[in-house]
Specification:
Number of helices: 4
Shape: globular
Bound molecules: the ligand Nc1nc2c(c(=O)[nH]1)N[C@H]1C(S)=C(S)[C@@H](COP(=O)(O)O)O[C@H]1N2, molybdenum atom
CATH architecture: Alpha-Beta Complex
Number of domains: 1
Structural class: alpha+beta
Number of strands: 11
Helix content: 10-25%
Order of helices and strands: HEEEHEEHEEHEEEE
Largest sheet: 6 strands, mixed
Distance between the termini: 34 Å
């Protein structure tokens, strides 16, 4: 599916206006140890689809996951090689900046810990830039990526992750707003310097903690 450049431009303009207006901001924060639902969020049962309107078809043939940059061992994994890595089941919540949250999602995939163990980031490494097949990018600090609940997932609720949700493999960083969780992951770049991603340069918060309501950059 490709909704085209006109659709994408309208989406970007609308979201940038949201950021300028501070739409959905409640002006409150919450402690994740006490409040499971972050401020201003509404629970949903379905799983909405959000992206730039292009959902790339990433076949097993086309799939390649590169992990490179400031690492001792660069990795370039085929889908078979990725699936042969130790797999973990996890359950976590999702929080989207457009206000919906969805609890208790059951994932299967490879932990960020395991991948970082293999590549061995160099001492100067401090940031992670995620690059996707649709050209999307997003950035997190290395310490945010290197958490026990961060995974590269290929299954949701016991079934392969659908193309619209980023299959065959997407990133999942449950404690940040979902725009940090790149779908159709292609490359994980480990860097010394931060590099704000697609939405981060368009008014979205660089850090994206839902309990601090870090929706927008101002
Ligand atoms: N590759 C890629 N990843 C992406 C996006 C995108 O446009 N391209 N959109 C982000 C945004 S803004 C959100 S809210 C979530 C939505 O994930 P979902 O469609 O599975 O709900 O994906 C994030 N990851
Ligand atoms: Mo989003």
């Amino acid at each position: 599916m490709d909704k085209g450049a006109g659709w994408r431009d309208k989406l970007i303009a609308a979201k940038q206006a949201w950021a300028r207006q501070g739409r959905l901001l409640t002006g409150t924060t919450a402690d994740p140890a006490v409040a499971r639902l972050p401020p201003g969020q509404t629970l949903v049962k379905d799983w909405p689809v959000l992206d730039l309107g292009e959902q790339p078809a990433v076949s097993a043939m086309k799939f390649r996951l590169d992990i490179d940059g400031l690492v001792a061992n660069t990795l370039s994994l085929t889908l078979d090689a990725f699936m042969a890595l130790p797999q973990t089941e996890s359950v976590s919540d999702m929080h989207c900046v457009t206000q919906w949250s969805r609890y208790d999602n059951r994932w299967r995939g490879v932990s960020a810990h395991a991948l970082l163990d293999m590549v061995q980031p160099l001492p100067e490494a401090a940031h992670v830039i995620l690059h996707a097949h649709d050209g999307y990018t997003t950035n997190v600090r290395l310490d945010q990526f290197d958490q026990p609940d961060v995974f590269l997932v290929h299954s949701w609720e016991g079934a392969p992750l659908s193309r619209e949700h980023g299959g065959p493999v997407r990133v999942l960083i449950p404690r940040l707003y979902l725009w940090k969780s790149a779908k159709w992951i292609r490359r994980i770049e480990i860097a010394a310097q931060d590099a704000p991603g697609f939405w981060e340069v368009r008014g979205y918060h660089n850090n994206a903690d839902p309990w601090l309501e870090e929706r927008y950059s101002q």
